[in-house]
Amino acid sequence: MLSYLWKGKKSEKVENENPELAMREACEAHGEFAVNPDGTLQWEAFLVFRSIIMRQACREFARFRDELNQRKLDAFKARDQPTYVAIFREGQQKFNNCISTMSKKACEWIELEPENYKLSIQNFFSDE
């Protein structure tokens, strides 16, 4: 996408159809993820790692999105607000599950403790 905006070359590389395998390939392509002495990720490594996780979690969720959107549309047309809200919540839960699952698998792949990843998130996004 960014290459399009700045008139760069389009990559010829095709992403793996399986989001988990694509996540592994992206982590391998990045190389070593820099960590602090306490085991948390450094800022640049965190950005790359989080981007990889979110990209592949969104691809994983795409399998459910069309069906959920159709069900929401049907409930909307039927003016069935409780069903619409329930389907919306179901979609949010599935999306969060995709993120959690991909995060867990990515941490396993790069041999990062999930607790250290969570601590990295807290360190970067805490209000001081």
Oligomer: single chain
Pattern of helices and strands: HHHHH
Number of domains: 1
Structural class: mainly alpha
Tell me the Rg in angstroms.
18 Å
Terminal-residue CA separation? 34 Å
Q: Which range best describes the helical content: under 10%, 10-25%, 25-40%, 40-55%, 55-70% or over 70%?
A: over 70%
Can you describe this structure?
The protein has 128 residues and is an all-alpha fold. The chain has one domain (19-32, 39-125). Helix content is 73%, strand content 0%. The protein has 5 helices and no strands. The chain has helices spanning 2-5, 19-30, 43-77, 81-110, 114-125. Helix 2 (19-30) packs antiparallel against helix 3 and helix 2 (19-30) crosses helix 4. It is globular. The mean pLDDT is 90.
What descriptors fit this protein?
128 residues, mainly alpha, 5 helices, 0% strand, globular
Chain-wise SSE layout:
Layout: H1 2-5, H2 19-30, H3 43-77, H4 81-110, H5 114-125
Helix pairs in contact: 2-3, 2-4, 3-4
Quick summary:
73% of the residues lie in helices and 0% in strands. It is mostly helical and 128 residues long.
